[in-house]
Design a protein that fits this description.
Order of helices and strands: EEHEHEEEEEEEEEEEHHHHH
CATH architecture of the largest domain: Beta Complex
Strand order of the largest sheet: 1-2-14-13
Strand content: 25-35%
Helix content: 10-25%
Number of domains: 3
Structural class: alpha+beta
CATH topology of the largest domain: RNA Polymerase Alpha Subunit, Chain A, domain 2
CATH class of the largest domain: Mainly Beta
């Protein structure tokens, strides 16, 4: 097959949203590229997030701080929504030390030179008066996908682990339209819409996803025999092969997907960590819902624990 020739046109681009048109593609390749890019954009784009916090005067999150309108649970939920841009491999610490009265924003954090808070105007708390102080020390890490707080349990008093959503891609949509080249009308036009959290641009995310696919396909074309795992050897652990895909990608009915997300199931790995009986006890789920989930998992070679 000859090398494909197509163009990528930017139809709309903002800091957090991009709409790109890729054409002309051979018939069928619109869906092939669109689906592959969508899956990689959701699971394999590196991002960063707050993974733990320590608040002066607070030993655990089920308490309150005198003079702060929000309780600690609300403060922790707000801290999870801070979107830092950081590409380093080692954890870094950011600090906040302020006093009232008035709102406290994410931009009040003191950050290292290689860290940027992309939503500095986001309000995390409101302090009542000048005698109210808020001091926070938070850890930022980079990674992929979603990481629950349970993965970072700590015996340190006052250290609160956070659920971390590393992926900077918020939403990906694609559709395929017909286009023509000269008199031939059976070509595909792929329209790709990408929304990010602002820590990476939509174009950068698209290019990164495409490069990831290129790396995998190069491994098929030119396998490295010294590092490659034998196809006849033991299978890789299930948790390492695709289990970080989001629940949204299972294409479940909206009611079931919403129930799972409200119960804290963000990825396939979360589903595989519980038994069928435990899953059936989730609010708004029943036996039929669990069967639908099981079927969706089996289509991707996963099985629920019994």
């Amino acid at each position: 097959m000859t090398k494909p020739q197509f163009t990528i046109k930017t139809e709309e681009e903002k800091p957090q949203y991009g709409r790109f048109a890729i054409e002309p593609l051979a018939q069928g390749f619109g869906d092939t590229l669109g689906n592959a890019l969508r899956r990689v954009l959701y699971t394999a784009i590196k991002g960063s997030a707050l993974t733990s916090v320590k608040i002066v005067g607070v030993n655990h999150q089920f308490t309150a701080l005198d003079g702060m309108r929000e309780d600690i649970v609300q403060l922790v939920l707000a801290l999870k929504q801070i979107r830092p841009a950081y590409q380093g491999d080692k954890p870094v610490t950011i600090t906040l030390e302020t006093q009232g009265p008035g709102p406290v924003t994410a931009g009040a954090f003191e950050v290292p030179s290689d860290v940027k808070v992309t939503n500095p105007d986001f309000v995390i708390a409101n302090l009542a008066d000048k005698n109210t102080k808020l001091e926070i020390e938070a850890t930022i890490e980079s990674g992929f996908g979603y990481s629950p707080a349970e993965d970072r349990k700590s015996t340190t008093v006052g250290l609160i682990p956070l659920d971390a959503t590393f992926t900077p891609v918020v939403r990906v949509n694609y559709k395929v339209e017909s286009t023509r080249v000269g008199r031939i009308t059976n070509f595909d036009k792929l329209i790709l819409e990408i929304t990010t959290d602002g820590t990476v641009s939509p174009r950068e995310a698209m290019i990164s996803a495409a490069q990831t696919l290129v790396n995998y396909f190069n491994g098929v074309v030119n396998p490295d025999s010294t590092d490659a795992v034998s196809l006849a050897g033991p299978a890789a652990p299930r948790a390492q092969v695709g289990a970080n895909i989001s629940v949204e990608e299972l294409d479940l009915p909206t009611r079931i997907a919403n129930a799972l997300q409200k119960a804290g199931f963000a990825t396939v790995a979360d589903l595989l960590a519980v038994s069928r009986a435990q899953l059936s006890k989730v609010k708004n789920l029943g036996g039929k819902s669990v069967e639908i989930i099981e079927k969706a998992l089996k289509e991707r070679n996963f099985d629920l624990a019994q």
